[in-house]
Write a structure and sequence with these properties.
about 300 residues; alpha/beta; Rossmann fold; ten-stranded mixed β-sheet; about 20% strand
Length: about 300
């Protein structure tokens, strides 16, 4: 299928990239720049911090800037400048406050927006946690969030999305994520795989019923656009959902994983070592999570 270069089916006003200014977040910054360029959106580079006691004393009457603030502003400006690409506006924003809360506020200011975060993988004693800020954002945000885990190879300047995977449990709560996955794939000119994993040992009758339900669910999503996206391949596989998704990412050279998450889903956010978190830590591609519930339109 030939895709139109017009991005009329997907709109982002801004990509909000949260950074702790460390090397762990650099790759997320590269992907944030790619997303901003892909969707002709502003790139907002954000660092939120807390003033030290000494800095608070310097700034107490509002007439002086502390050295801490000056140093952070300089470093953030340098990080933002390094991500500049073509005509995409890059806006550095330094905020006093809790990072997750400041990211949510900026996303609301620039809506419709996408959040982009980098994560680090913890060891066994940390139960494979993603970064604490990313964890809080994913648990509370209503905005699509692209999380770049420690297993994702570095992004290159000429990189593009060729194949996207939407992993679904076919529940109504993930319908919004299905719509975003289709819109995202079309806007990027990418192929779209849709995967549903059933428990091993499911009987043929139940599997056929799931396939029928699966097809109806996809038809319902695709029917929202007259010239329905047709570069779509559907898969139903048996086994452990996380293992099969990671295998599919590897075997099909997936560039982006899309998940609809809710607290009751087998792919959702339930505990720190289950649900979406291990996928984010181990996937060799960024993970775009769409939270169930009232959301926002991304169509023009």
């Amino acid at each position: 299928m030939e895709h139109s270069t017009e991005k009329a089916f997907m709109k982002l006003n801004a990509v909000i990239y949260g950074t702790d200014l460390s090397v762990f977040s650099q790759n997320a910054g590269l992907y944030a720049a790619l997303m901003a360029k892909q969707f002709s959106a502003k790139l907002v580079v954000v660092h939120a911090f807390t003033l030290s006691q000494a800095a608070m004393e310097v700034e107490i009457d509002g007439s002086l800037l502390s050295q801490q603030r000056k140093d952070l502003h300089l470093l953030l400006s340098q990080k933002a400048a390094a991500l500049a690409c073509g005509t995409v506006p890059v806006i550095p924003v330094l905020r006093d406050g809790e990072p997750a809360e400041e990211l949510r506020r900026l996303a609301t200011t620039y809506e419709p927006a996408m959040l982009v975060l980098g994560t680090h993988g913890g060891g066994w004693l940390q139960r494979e946690l993603i970064g604490s800020v990313a964890e809080r954002v994913l648990r509370t945000t209503r905005w699509p969030t692209l999380t770049v885990g420690p297993s994702v190879p570095p992004a290159s300047s000429g990189q593009s999305l060729h194949r996207i995977l939407f992993a679904t449990d076919l529940s109504p709560a993930t319908a919004a994520a299905a719509a975003v996955a289709v819109q995202f794939a079309e806007a990027a000119g990418a192929e779209l795989d849709v995967l549903h994993v059933v428990k091993r040992g499911a009987d043929t009758q139940r599997l056929n019923a799931l396939k029928d339900r699966y097809s109806r669910a996809l038809d319902a999503v695709l029917a929202k656009k007259p010239d329905a996206f047709d570069d779509l391949k559907s898969f139903i596989e048996a086994g452990d959902a996380h293992e099969r998704i990671l295998e599919h990412i590897r075997d099909r050279a997936i560039d982006l994983l899309v998940l609809g998450i809710r607290k009751t889903s087998h792919l959702g956010i339930r505990t720190k070592s289950s649900g979406a978190f291990p996928l984010i830590v181990h996937a060799r591609c960024p993970v775009l999570t769409i939270t169930s519930g009232p959301g926002h339109s991304y169509s023009r």
